[in-house]
From TrEMBL:
InterPro entries linked to this entry: ADH-like_C, ADH-like_N, ER, GroES-like_sf, NAD(P)-bd_dom_sf, Quinone_OxRdtase_PIG3
A molecular function (GO) term: oxidoreductase activity, acting on NAD(P)H
Top-rank taxon, per record: Eukaryota
Spans traversing the lipid bilayer: none
Name the UniProt record assigns to this protein: Enoyl reductase (ER) domain-containing protein
Taxonomic lineage from the root: Eukaryota, Fungi, Dikarya, Basidiomycota, Agaricomycotina
Domain annotation Enoyl reductase (ER): ranges: 11-332
Keyword field: NADP, Oxidoreductase
Species this chain originates from: Agaricus bisporus var. burnettii (strain JB137-S8 / ATCC MYA-4627 / FGSC 10392) (White button mushroom)
Pfam family, one: ADH_N
Amino acid sequence: MRAVLVRGGSGPAESLYIGEAPKPQITSTQVLVQVKAFGLNRMDIMQREGGYPVPPGASQILGVEFSGTISEVGSDVVEWKVGDHVLGLAGGGAYAEYIAVPSTHVIRKPDNLTWIEAASVPEAFLTAYQALVLIGHVRKNDDILIHAGASGVGIAAIQLARYFGANTVTVTTSKQEKIDWLLGMSNGPTHAVNYKTEDFAERVKTITAGKGVNVVIDFVGQSHFNKNINALAMDGRMTMLALLSGSLVEKVNLGPLLYKRLHIEGSTLRSRSAAYQADLIQQFSSNVFGNISGEEGKGSIKTYIHKVYSWDQIQDAHKEMEANQNIGKIMVEIT
């Protein structure tokens, strides 16, 4: 089969090319999916550069989310049949014509989502759902702070926070263009802050009348850490999903963790067990997925696409993500 490969095993975007790779062989509990579209995620860039080891047993081919048609089912699989339209989550291998995944890791694609829209859902929305619900224990009337607000996960988290009844949802980003776009979303944030020109901790204190936020979803790490601690309310919860500004915080006052009874937890969805991921997918499918539509659809939660590339433009797609100019998901269709 054809797949996007990395010349030399790691390198810049120019090292990506379409080549030949072995077609996956499925086990008795897996399905084989002929991929129609896949989404880009920042971990793909890190893996391409050699800085993100794949989980044990996962494909070395890039890509963790996809949509497509089931072309083969394992002997123990009863819930799926050849020809079913699905979207799914994988440990790797989505940048290819075929991908093998556990039967528990695909969701039936509804007719109201295109192949592109369907493939944009799994990683962003499952990560956001895990961060807010399973770890952040979001509750009705909570005040929420979400960083990297214009990213795929950020946009998903904003809408999920509103869906679960948040009182306020404050997002941070670095560009006025992104702030304007986010505030124009139909189910978007209640407030937005440019973290380069304003202290987001002080801003959320003002927004919440001095209380602080109940939940923080952070992707940034080092540069935001102390302000995040300051921004959190009593019994606040913070989920850390990435460390874009670095992992080393030189000076931290541990006092607030103690007297505010804070809960801080890090998580990477890709490294979770297959059983954990299957349970997460089941919960998300039952509680949220039916409310998702494309940007022009009628769903109370929408998936927003920044740009769609053909897979022979994969180098350009990676460069677009590296430029950090996107609002929403960068998607690729296999042609």
